[in-house]
Amino acid sequence: MLNKFKFKNVGVIGFGAHVPTYRITVDEIAKVHEKDGRAIAASLGVKEKAVADRDEDTVSLAAAAALHSLKRVQGKLFKPKDLGAVLVGSESHPYAVKPTGSVVAEILGVGREYLTADLEFACKAGTTAMIVIASLIEAGLIEAGLAIGADVAQSRRGDALEYTAGAGAAAVVLGSKKYPWQAKFEAASSFNSDTPDFWRRAGQKFPAHAGRFTGEPAYFAHVEEGTRQFLKKFRQKIGWFNHVVLHMPNGKFPKKAAARLGVTAGQLKTGFIVEKIGNPYCASAMTGLVKVLEEGRKNQKILMTSYGSGAGSDSISLTILQKNSIGKDTDVSEQIKKFEYISYSKLC
User: Fold this and answer.
1) Would residue 222 show up in a list of annotated catalytic residues for this protein?
2) By residue range, what is the domain housing residue 228?
3) Do both 32 and 169 map to the same domain?
4) How far is it, in rounded angstroms, from Cα 252 to Cα 44?
5) What number of CA atoms fall less than 13 Å from residue 265's CA on the CB side?
């Protein structure tokens, strides 16, 4: 059982995301399969998705997001070698045996004395990385650490996932009081079960899923109950949060879960990015969080609940201490605006 614990010595000192430039519309995919693209887009609540280029993978996306996050770290005290841990959550690590984390750390110039590991738990491994990093800082083992959620999402041609499975990465640098905080990392909880709604066996290229079973007993059960568990444990009310970010497998699920939880459209709006970039798996909720940190105001409270098939949810609360928007080309909103549509033939 996870203890009720409020973090006192951990804050967000940097954050960033990377959204690939290429996009493909739901309608373009549907035409290839002789389907009604408008009807599919309406049913999913997604118009298009971000697509990785041929020379992009989880490592390159993660490194790009990490570089953005380091640019936001304030003060002259911090250097990449101050990172005591680099954890990368993904379900599309390029290698089955060879860490993504050490490659990213090498690109960043972290040095040699750091802890690293690749984490897997479908789409919530990145938020789990955040909780692990925060715990390492609170325990005094490290002063700062980097948590990344990144994916080049896989989907079989013609599968329902093909319309939404996107690509992207998000990174959050957490640090002790030694560094200037941009947001306070306050509390976290996790809710998990053995619910086989989505899986990919060793050696298989594409995942399989249980269709409609991925809804009520999987996504909704864990996102909703995980959030309620968090609120009850820490004696919070959903209305106290200015921003709520839920994992976004499509445009319909998070809105439905939000309505059941009493989350308003206004609370959901800022971090709701799925309509334009699809579901970048481990980067989904974390990219929404990065956008909220970029656009939110001082003293605003954030609640994020991720979801990973298999199945589980992490809930994390933060309070913004200062606004830090780099602006042109780097903010999530700017990256979403900068895109190039591609045809299905180029996707293949």
Assistant:
1) no
2) 186-320
3) yes
4) 6
5) 2
